[in-house]
Amino acid sequence: MTLKSGVWLVGEGTGTVLTGKITVADQADTAGLYNLNVGTTAADNVLYLNGPRSFTAQNCLFYLNNTSLTKFPVLIDGGTTFGALNSFYKCQILSKGHGLKQMASATTKYTNTTTLRDCYILYNGGAVATGGQTGLIFAGDAVEKNLLCDNLYMEQWDTAISLDETLCHLENIYVDVVNTAGIDVTQASINAGNQYIHVKTPSTTTQPLLVLGGRKYYASSSNLSMVYDNRRIQPYTAWIEKYLVPSHNTTQSYGALYGHNSGSAGEGLLSQLTIAGTPINSGDYTNGRWVRYTSAGTAGDNAGWRYTGTPYTYRGWNPSYFVKMRTDNTAASRGWFGWMSTSTEPTGDDFLNALSGVALGWLAGDTNWQIITNDGTGTTSYASTGVAIATNTIYTLEIRAEDTTPRFGYSINGATMAFVTSNLPAQTTALYPVFQLEQTTTAAGKNLDRFHVFTRGDK
Predict the structure, then answer these.
(1) Are residues 231 and 318 in the same domain?
(2) Which residues constitute the domain of residue 143?
(3) Residues in CB range of 344: below 8 A, 6 or more apart
(4) Is the pTM of this model over 0.70?
(5) Chain segment 33-71, per-residue pLDDT in tens
C-alpha cells in the first residue's frame, strides 16, 4: 500500500489492524496515519517513508514480529527534492529486531527532521536484547539528520539510541535496561537545554549509560541511573571512564597535571609533588605535549613523581586515577601508577610490603600489565591483567574505587572495567598518588613520559 499527497488512513474504535507494508511516496505532502495497528511477521519494513515532504502518525502501533536486522518497523529515508518533516505522536514501535531507523540512501537525498513525542519503543523479543538490536538509529551518512524527542520511553534494547551525524534535541528521555549501551553518540550535536535523560543499566555496571564520541559514562555500583541535565553529567549518578576534564564538576575535589608542566605543582590537589629524575618538556604534532622524566642511570634510580603532601584521599572517598603515559624499556625497569599508603619513594619488587595500595604496573621483563594490590599486611600481590605491555608505547590507565562494594576497577586503553575485590586498602587508610618507574640495571637512564594525570574523589 502506498500513500500519496493528502491521503490519510484512519482507524476506528481501538485501532484498525493492517498486515503488510505501508510506503509513503517520495515528496508526498500532508499524508498520515491515525489510530492504526500495522505490522508483519515477514522480514520486511512495516512503515517505509520514502522521502515524503510531510508525514504524521498519531495513536499508532508499528510492530515487526521478525528477528531481521535489515528490516524495521519504521524506516525513514530522505527526499529527492525537499527535506522531509516526519512527526510521530503517541505511537508505539515494537520489534524483535531493530526499532526506528532514519537514514539517507544517497548523498542526493535531502535532510530529514523527525519528531517523536510521547512515544514508546520496545524490544519485544523476550529478555534484554544481546545481538546488536538498537531501538532508535540515526545512521551515519553524508546527509545531516535532525531529531527532536520529547517524552520518549525506550526499553529492553541492546543499545537504546544510536546517533551519528545528527543534530538532536533530546528532552525527557527514559531508557530502561540496556545490554551494551544506553545512548551512543558519534559525530552528533546535542542541544541539551534543560533536558532530562534517565538511563538504567543492569547491575553489572559494565554497560555504559552514555557514549559521547567514544567517551564512556557508567553508573556507580550504588546508583544505576544517570541524569544528563542542562549540558552536564550529574556527578552523583554517573562517572566517566575516560579522561575528560571539561565534564568534571568543579565543586568536586580533583587534581590535574598536564603536558609541559615539568614542575612540582599541578592543579587542584596535585600541588605538592616530589620529582624523581630529570624532567624535560617535550611534544609533537601527532601525540601532543608531554613531560619526559629520565632516571640517573644507576640501578635503583627512579623517574616520575609522587605526592608528598598531607593525606590525599581514602578508599571511602571513591577516588579515581586517570593517566596517559608512555613506557620506555620495560625489560630493565619496574613501574607503579596508582595509589599507595605512603608518600615515600617506592623501590624494589615488593614496594607495598606491609603497606596498602592499588596500582597498575610491571616488573622487569613482564610481558603483560599487572594489577598490584595489598591490604597493609604481607607482601605485594601481582596479577596479570592479560593486556600486553610493550616498549615505547602510549597507554591510558584508569583506577577507581567503589567503597560500598568494596572493590577497585581498572581499565587499560579504555577497555571495559575489570575489578579486584580482595587484598584492598581499608576504607579509612590514607592513599597517595604515584607515577614512577625504577630502573633495575646500571646503564643509560630510563625514560617515563607523562601526558596528563587527573584524579578526583567524593571529598
Answers:
(1) no
(2) 2-240
(3) none
(4) no
(5) 999 999 999 999 999 988 888 899 999 999 999 999 999
